[in-house]
């Protein structure tokens, strides 16, 4: 089933879909330009703008629901952005509206949560303005009907991410982490920019409609090149190998930011890009699609392994995020069936990972911003709501049967298994490791002995923080089943990304499914033995070579440093040396040569008029001789 | 034939005088040599049918310019003869090379040129009724503008010379009282003894003897004393010689105080 | 005959030039310059005779005028310099140098 035609649209709620972007942008502008005058009500304005955007998204969604399947790709024109090249417009179709709902919905919940979380921070107004800016940029990214609009949104979320990671810029670690995220993303964004240039030169357009229509006619090599360049961009934004190194450091930002940007939404932009361009540039069986799946599997294993060794609860969750996005990438490389599960996993992950992160934020809130899990323990009694919601998120992510993660992740594993057993079994292994590290996290935090710092007085968070947790955990329970069972999501997405030839049937009992459950159970049991039943040392033991390997992010930073930073430094020093000795040497040498020669030549100027007269006479003699020689006399 | 004899005689005279101008040590001799050259040239002008120029040469050059030279020479000291030591290394050698080379080149050029018989200016002179009217016609018709410019140049030069030679008085003119005071302050209020008094000879450069028989170094002109010292014309009498040396030393001191400290060379 | 006059003129000019170069007394140097000018005048007069018109004599006349002006100003300068420096040597006026 091919994606349907894009239809020009006007009127209705979809006609004013640009409000979705404009409202949070307005909020950000008011808060940033208003300055301290808006301190008192700034956070409320941010929440209202986010909720209003959510309302527009819901209304647009309802209007889209009212149309028949082949009418559901609506395009609205906004303005001429670059005359003759880019007409800015919005594409409202099942895919983009699903993202819009996720971004504004989860975004609004996190806005509300942040009111409580940031209540004591002097920069709260600034925080909400950045959040609003992020929402606006992310919505532009997913709603734009062309690659240039997507690129603007892409850079916008990059900026918001940079500002929010470095939100506590007085901490050197936060400032460094922000710069690291920005620089690593430069690499990916560079690839994306070149990809967009290549699309323009190949197809003469950057709008999705025309490009996808004629994409099949281009040369295979060009298509692969475009696909790989777009994938490079996706790798940067979604923290996939080899551009994964920034995500773990990005946890320096406030926890709501980690939840919204670095778990639920922004890091999934790469998946969106691959799925959106999938039919054109990542068709099943193509080189680009193969690379996507390989990157996905490699990242899901790497993220999971990193997650097993982290004692910092947020970094553990960040490793988990990498791993889960690896699953999505894997799905996005597997064609229409894979798209359904990839998007499905993306949505459910958005819920349960936001749930987990906000839960972690709630725990930190209770523990004086302590992030080391070795200093938690036995918190389930004191933080009942946080515990229950966190536990639901935990069950969802490890794929406990009938919860959200179970349906979407198993779907990806099944599809991968169908596609290539190697990829499939590696994904199963990743699920097993997920079971271990998530269990470890839960056991270290909520079970076992108290290992708190002396001045810790854990207490449950206020309602403004727990209510979003409850809502998110409800989504974590039911959303997966709702989306997958009965082909709801597949049917919904079919007009946008194409659908499978025959309806997907979800089998509850399959070999990989059972294998996954067994592995997860083994992982959880191992974690219980090591961290639940046994005593957890407050100071991390030295660990084996493998532990160190995982703790140091699989030596990702070391590789970057030795492969890129050191040669770069040498190159810089070489350039400086060349500039000092070579360029300056030539310039200074010429100057010194002229100066020295002049210093000697000026000795001719003796001040004796008679010497000058002698040279004049010689000159006259020479002139006379010359004239005589040429015979003019 | 007459012209040839005149030319050769005057050529030898003028070249010898020119060489004398270059090589004679005393500036006054130089001036005299230059006068000889100019007179010779005046005659050569006359020989070549240029009587007006010959007259002007004698009147302007030999008469006015040469007198001016001599006047200035007297003013700055007739004695200012050059020392024969050349201070700039290689200057003489290269000057000779350049001078001889230049002369040879010019002579070669002249010798190479195919020069026919001279047309002579007699015709041109006769057309206007003589050399002077012919020149006058040219000056006041075709070249009248150049002539006016030349007159302006002469006026400017006269004014320039006046401005350059004029010395502004920086202190009031001393009155008789001032002069009298200065004389008493000098420690010798009476008139200086004249030279030659009680001297064995009557020469102006011989110091006088005072009534007590001692020698007065004040009686001899210091400039003359310096010349005597420079030329080694000192009297045999040691007392007299000492007095002359003292006067000469005073003159040197005086000169040095006027010239101020010279920059080191 | 013209050739002889011209060679004599060249000879006097060269002698004058050498004199300018070797003499240090500013007044003598000036005299040598006058000698060079006179040598030129001789050449001009000779050319006038050779070509049969009076332009050469005219030029010689103007040269005399200019030479007179030059002598006046030049000697005034020499006197001024002598007044301040007590020296008529051209080598003593050598402050304008490296």
TrEMBL record, chain A:
Principal location listed in the UniProt entry: membrane
Compartments (UniProt record): Endomembrane system; Membrane
Gene3D superfamilies in UniProt: 1.20.5.2700
Stored InterPro entries: NADHpl_OxRdtase_5_subgr, ND/Mrp_TM, NU5C-like, Proton_antipo_N
Record field: transmembrane: 12-34, 41-62, 95-115, 127-144, 190-208, 220-236, 257-275, 281-306, 327-348, 383-403, 423-443, 463-486, 506-528, 612-631
One Pfam entry name: Proton_antipo_M
Record keyword Membrane present: yes
Family annotation (PANTHER family): NADH-UBIQUINONE OXIDOREDUCTASE CHAIN 5
Taxonomic superkingdom: Bacteria
GO molecular function: NADH dehydrogenase (ubiquinone) activity; NADH dehydrogenase activity
Keywords, comma-separated and alphabetical: Membrane, Transmembrane, Transmembrane helix
Domain NADH:quinone oxidoreductase/Mrp antiporter transmembrane residue range list: 144-434
Protein name listed in UniProt: NADH-quinone oxidoreductase subunit L
Biological process according to GO: ATP synthesis coupled electron transport; electron transport coupled proton transport
GO cellular component: endomembrane system; membrane
The NADH-Ubiquinone oxidoreductase (complex I) chain 5 N-terminal domain, residue ranges: 86-128
Protein's membrane topology: Multi-pass membrane protein
Keyword Cell cycle assigned: no
Organism of origin: Thermocatellispora tengchongensis
UniProtKB/TrEMBL annotation, chain B:
InterPro entries for this protein: NADH_UbQ/plastoQ_OxRdtase_su6 (IPR001457), Nuo/plastoQ_OxRdtase_6_NuoJ (IPR042106)
Subcellular location: Cell membrane
Catalytic activity as recorded in UniProt: a quinone + NADH + 5 H(+)(in) = a quinol + NAD(+) + 4 H(+)(out)
Gene3D superfamilies with a match to the protein in the record: NADH-ubiquinone/plastoquinone oxidoreductase chain 6, subunit NuoJ
Signal peptide positions on this chain: none
UniProtKB keywords: Cell membrane, Membrane, NAD, Quinone, Transmembrane, Transmembrane helix
GO MF entries: NADH dehydrogenase (ubiquinone) activity; quinone binding
Membrane topology recorded in Swiss-Prot or TrEMBL: Multi-pass membrane protein
GO CC annotation, single: plasma membrane
The enzyme's E.C. designation: 7.1.1.-
Highest taxon of source: Bacteria
Enzyme class, spelled out: translocase
Transmembrane helix keyword on record: yes
Segments passing through the bilayer: 6-23, 28-46, 52-73, 93-115, 144-165
The keyword Nuclease is annotated on this UniProt entry: no
PANTHER family (alphabetical): NADH-QUINONE OXIDOREDUCTASE SUBUNIT J, NADH-UBIQUINONE OXIDOREDUCTASE CHAIN 6
Function: NDH-1 shuttles electrons from NADH, via FMN and iron-sulfur (Fe-S) centers, to quinones in the respiratory chain. Couples the redox reaction to proton translocation (for every two electrons transferred, four hydrogen ions are translocated across the cytoplasmic membrane), and thus conserves the redox energy in a proton gradient.
Family: Belongs to the complex I subunit 6 family.
UniProt-recorded name of the protein: NADH-quinone oxidoreductase subunit J
Organism whose genome encodes this protein: Thermocatellispora tengchongensis
From TrEMBL, chain C:
Transmembrane feature ranges: 6-22, 27-47, 59-82
Gene Ontology BP term (one): ATP synthesis coupled electron transport
Species assigned in the record: Thermocatellispora tengchongensis
One term of GO molecular function: quinone binding
Name listed for the protein in its UniProt record: NADH-quinone oxidoreductase subunit K
Location(s) in or outside the cell: Cell membrane; Membrane
PANTHER family in the cross-refs: NADH DEHYDROGENASE SUBUNIT 4L-RELATED, NADH-UBIQUINONE OXIDOREDUCTASE SUBUNIT ND4L
Membrane disposition: Multi-pass membrane protein
GO cellular component, one term: NADH dehydrogenase complex
GN (gene name): nuoK
Gene3D superfamilies with a match to the protein in the record: 1.10.287.3510
Enzyme Commission number, as recorded: 7.1.1.-
Keywords for this protein: Cell membrane, Membrane, NAD, Quinone, Translocase, Transmembrane, Transmembrane helix, Transport
């Amino acid at each position: 089933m091919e994606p349907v035609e894009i239809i020009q649209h006007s009127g209705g709620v979809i006609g004013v879909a640009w409000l979705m972007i404009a409202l949070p942008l307005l909020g950000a502008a008011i808060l940033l330009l208003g300055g301290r005058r808006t301190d008192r009500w700034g956070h409320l304005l941010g929440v209202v703008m986010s909720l209003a955007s959510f309302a527009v998204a819901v209304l647009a969604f309802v209007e889209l629901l009212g149309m028949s399947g082949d009418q559901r790709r609506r395009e609205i024109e906004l303005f001429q952005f670059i005359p003759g090249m880019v007409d800015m417009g919005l594409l409202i179709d099942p895919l983009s509206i699903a993202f819009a709902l996720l971004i504004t919905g989860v975004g609004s919940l996190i806005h509300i949560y942040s009111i409580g979380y940031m209540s004591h921070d002097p920069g709260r107004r600034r925080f909400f303005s950045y959040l609003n800016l992020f929402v606006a940029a992310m919505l532009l990214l997913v709603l734009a009907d062309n690659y240039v609009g997507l690129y603007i949104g892409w850079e916008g979320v990059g900026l918001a991410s940079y500002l929010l990671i470095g939100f506590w810029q007085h901490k050197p670690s936060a400032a460094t982490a922000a710069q690291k995220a920005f620089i690593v993303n430069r690499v990916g964004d560079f690839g994306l920019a070149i990809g967009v240039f290549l699309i323009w030169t190949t197809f003469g357009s950057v709008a999705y409609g025309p490009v996808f229509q004629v994409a099949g006619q281009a040369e295979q090599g060009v298509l692969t090149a475009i696909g790989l360049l777009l994938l490079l961009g996706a790798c940067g934004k979604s923290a996939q190998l080899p551009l994964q190194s920034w995500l773990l450091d990005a946890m320096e930002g406030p926890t709501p930011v980690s939840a919204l940007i670095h778990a639920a939404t922004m890091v999934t932009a790469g998946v969106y890009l691959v799925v959106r361009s999938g039919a054109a540039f990542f068709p099943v069986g193509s080189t680009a699609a193969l690379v996507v799946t390989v990157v996905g599997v490699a990242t899901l294993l790497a993220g999971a392994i990193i997650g097993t060794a982290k004692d910092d609860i947020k970094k553990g969750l960040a490793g988990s995020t990498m791993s889960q996005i690896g699953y999505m990438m894997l799905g996005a490389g597997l064609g229409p069936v894979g798209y359904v599960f990839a998007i499905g996993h993306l949505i459910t992950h958005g819920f349960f990972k936001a749930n987990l992160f906000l839960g972690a934020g709630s725990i930190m809130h209770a523990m004086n911003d302590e992030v080391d899990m070795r200093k938690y323990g036995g918190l389930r009694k004191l933080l009942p709501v946080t515990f229950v919601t966190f536990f639901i998120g935990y069950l969802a992510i490890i794929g406990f049967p009938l919860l959200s993660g179970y349906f979407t992740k198993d779907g990806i594993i099944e599809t991968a298994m169908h596609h290539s057993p190697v990829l499939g079994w590696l994904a199963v292994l990743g699920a097993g490791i997920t079971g271990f590290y998530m269990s470890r996290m839960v056991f270290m935090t909520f079970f076992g002995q108290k290992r708190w710092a002396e001045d810790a007085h854990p207490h449950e968070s206020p309602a403004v923080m727990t209510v979003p947790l409850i809502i998110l955990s409800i989504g974590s329970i039911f959303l997966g089943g709702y989306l997958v069972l009965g082909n709801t999501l597949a049917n919904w997405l079919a007009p946008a990304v194409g659908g499978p030839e025959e309806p997907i049937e979800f089998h509850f009992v399959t070999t990989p499914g059972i294998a996954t459950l067994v592995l997860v159970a083994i992982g959880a049991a191992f974690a219980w033995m090591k961290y639940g039943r046994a005593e957890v040392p407050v100071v991390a033991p030295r660990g084996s070579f493998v532990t160190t390997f995982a703790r140091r992010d699989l030596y990702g930073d070391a590789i970057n440093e030795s492969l890129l930073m050191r040669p770069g430094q040498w190159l810089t020093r070489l350039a400086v040396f060349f500039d000092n000795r070579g360029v300056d040497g030539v310039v200074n040498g010429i100057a010194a040569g002229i100066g020295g020669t002049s210093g000697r030549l000026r000795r001719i100027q003796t001040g004796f008029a008679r010497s000058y007269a002698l040279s004049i006479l010689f000159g006259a003699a020479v002139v006379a001789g010359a004239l005589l020689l040429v015979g003019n006399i | 034939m007459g012209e040839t004899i005149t030319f050769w005689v005057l050529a030898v005279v003028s070249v010898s005088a020119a060489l004398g101008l270059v090589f004679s040590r005393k500036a006054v001799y130089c001036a005299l040599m230059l006068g000889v050259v100019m007179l010779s040239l005046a005659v050569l002008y006359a020989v070549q049918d240029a009587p007006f120029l010959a007259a002007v040469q004698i009147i302007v050059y030999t008469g006015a310019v040469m007198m001016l030279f001599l006047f200035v020479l007297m003013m700055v000291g007739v004695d200012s003869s050059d020392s024969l030591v050349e201070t700039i290394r290689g200057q003489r050698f290269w000057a000779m090379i350049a001078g001889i080379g230049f002369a040879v080149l010019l002579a070669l050029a002249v010798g190479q040129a195919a020069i026919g018989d001279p047309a002579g200016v007699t015709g041109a002179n006769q057309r206007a009724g003589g050399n002077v009217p012919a020149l006058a016609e040219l000056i006041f018709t075709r070249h009248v503008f150049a002539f006016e410019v030349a007159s302006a140049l002469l006026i400017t030069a006269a004014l320039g010379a006046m401005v350059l030679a004029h010395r502004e008085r920086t202190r009031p003119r001393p009155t008789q009282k001032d002069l009298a005071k200065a004389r008493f302050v000098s420690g010798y209020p009476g008139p200086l003894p004249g030279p030659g008094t009680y001297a064995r000879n009557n020469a102006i450069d011989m110091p006088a003897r005072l009534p007590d028989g001692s020698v007065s170094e004040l009686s001899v002109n210091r400039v003359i004393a310096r010349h005597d010292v420079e030329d080694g014309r000192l009297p045999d009498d040691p007392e007299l010689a000492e007095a002359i040396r003292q006067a000469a030393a005073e003159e040197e001191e005086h000169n040095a105080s006027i010239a101020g400290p010279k920059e080191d060379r | 005959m013209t050739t002889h006059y011209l060679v004599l003129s060249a000879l006097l000019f060269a002698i004058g030039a050498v004199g300018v170069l070797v003499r240090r007394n500013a007044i003598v140097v000036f005299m040598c310059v006058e000698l060079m000018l006179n040598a030129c005048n001789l050449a001009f007069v000779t050319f006038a005779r050779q070509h049969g018109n009076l332009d050469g004599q005219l030029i010689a006349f103007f040269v005399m005028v200019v030479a007179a002006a030059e002598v006046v100003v030049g000697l005034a300068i020499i006197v001024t310099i002598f007044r301040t420096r007590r020296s008529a040597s051209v080598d003593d006026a050598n402050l304008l140098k490296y």
